Amino acid sequence: MRTVLLFIFLFGSRIMFAQFSARFVVTNIATRSNEDIYLTGTFNNWNPKDPQYKLKPFSGGRKSIVLINLAAGTYAFKFSRGENKLESTADGRDLSDRILEVNGDVSNEYTIAGFKDDYPEKPKSYTASPQVRIMDTAFLIPQLNKKRRIWVYLPKNYQTTGKNYPVLYMHDGQNLFNEKTAFAGEWGVDECLDSLQEKIQKECIVVGIDNGLEKRINEFNPYDHFQYGKGMGNEYVDFIAQTLKPFIDTKYRTRKGRDYTYLAGSSMGGLISWYAQLKYPAIFGGAAVFSPSFWISPQIAVDAEKWDGMEMLRFYFYTGAKEEATAVSDMQKIASILQKKKQSQIRTVVNPIGQHNEKYWRQEFPAFYIWMANNWKE
Length: 378
Fold this sequence. Notes:
By secondary structure, the protein is of the alpha/beta class. Helices cover 26% and strands 28% of the residues. The strands form 4 sheets. An 8-stranded mixed beta sheet has the order 10-11-13-12-14-15-16-17, sandwiched between helices. A 4-stranded mixed beta sheet has the order 3-4-1-8, with no helix packed on it. The longest helix has 19 residues, at 233-251.
């Protein structure tokens, strides 16, 4: 009996902690077959031209790459030739993320029907509602010695009442309100709030901060990284707390207290929203942490453990089960650490079909907004 139990334990441990390999073989490329092809996905934070994920020539004119030490789980990916050169359907339409289930060593073959840059983009529509305005096209970020576009959404009745409003600060401003500027689909924050605020009678101002494009990962990362370089997240958070918020509070009618000042973002934007509340708990009262990139540093768990402030922590954690293999467990680990703090209000949501993209963050935003608004005292 002891032998059987030992076997079960060892076998179960092997499954639980095993690392597997995955071979990707591209057998046919319909166009530009002589150019370099890269694997991009949740393996490498969707870097479209990561030299470590470049496919190599394989027998029979094919191209391939082998990833090793993969944990069991679900991965999303596509093939690309670089920035804005993702694979597409044969007629240039967007291709859904490819999905790889890993529970053992795998080897799969793929064909590439086309690439997006082979088809001229149709002009995108300007979809921002009348409540959205660009506050500044080049607002100074003194902490980073850079300038950035800042968007502001004002409630419909802002001009006709003397009310003061809570403020939600959001990252990746390009993606929040306007399809014309969105690089991966817009969240539709303005359309959502135009209708939702009428239903629940709780309104707020939204401030959107454009990301730094190629420096996005660095600016949203408070930790240095061996691959992506120096983290600038501390300076970026200082900018919101010390420069942008005081300016917004002066220019607009805001409710300035921490309980009326929230943050929201996804992926690296989710990470920096989480970090900002821990660094400035007296300024930010809560955060939406969508699909956070908690994989980027083990220091995240350390910082969560040592936080012992007296202010209430409020976090709305969300991720999709169809994101990178450790997305759910990483989120739940940090959430469970924070739930043990004396003052914490934590909500965790796992979408069983959720992938790492704007479509699913847009779907979750209304639920977060209602959760956030319920914390405002009238």
